Amino acid sequence: MSVSDVAAVAELVLRERQSRDRGWWDRWTQCFAEESVVDMSWFTGSGAEFVRQTRRRSADGVWGRHRLSPPAVQVDGSRAWAELPLAIEFRVMAGGAEADLVSYCRSQYRAEHIGGRWQIRRITSIYERDSLTPAVPGTTLDLDPALFAAHRPSYRCLAWYLERTGSTISADLLGDDRPEDVARQYEAEAAWLHQTSLSPTGTTHPTKEN
């Protein structure tokens, strides 16, 4: 692992989110490998299709912004893994008033060095918690708590909002309210990075599988 590779992957991860938020569609597309997968709240599919669908949704006014923290990066040969803590911010109408919805999560990136540069192979999101608060101090949001009761605490406000905008959101996303699923996710990412495989007992052994 070299410092330059760590820096390049960190820059790639940050560029991917910046390009999305700024609507730099061509630059965003170039972040993804030809065979890539994105798995998050409202979308599962290829990186290229993720860009196309986000561009369409942004034209309809469905849009959020990201507040980013520094990514943690690990490199093993031509493979790299990064975890990016972030907050997704939306200004929405809720209960007849302007409100700020913030979803806190961390995105995990698989990247590979292909054709002389680092490219994203996979993005997976893990949801932590979210909140919905009035945008104007002193304002009350006239909302029935039952609207949120059916959703998991790691992303209940986000699920409520996305369903209002016509998205279908799974009840089985990765979230900190299901720690065993999250632990398995970390094990799978480490196995991919180091090119090992997981046995039923959770131990690893080397493999040549890509």
TrEMBL record:
Which parts of the sequence belong to the SnoaL-like domain?
A: 2-123
Q: Which Pfam families match?
A: SnoaL_4 (PF13577)
Q: What is this protein called?
A: SnoaL-like domain-containing protein
Q: Which organism is the protein's source?
A: Aeromicrobium chenweiae
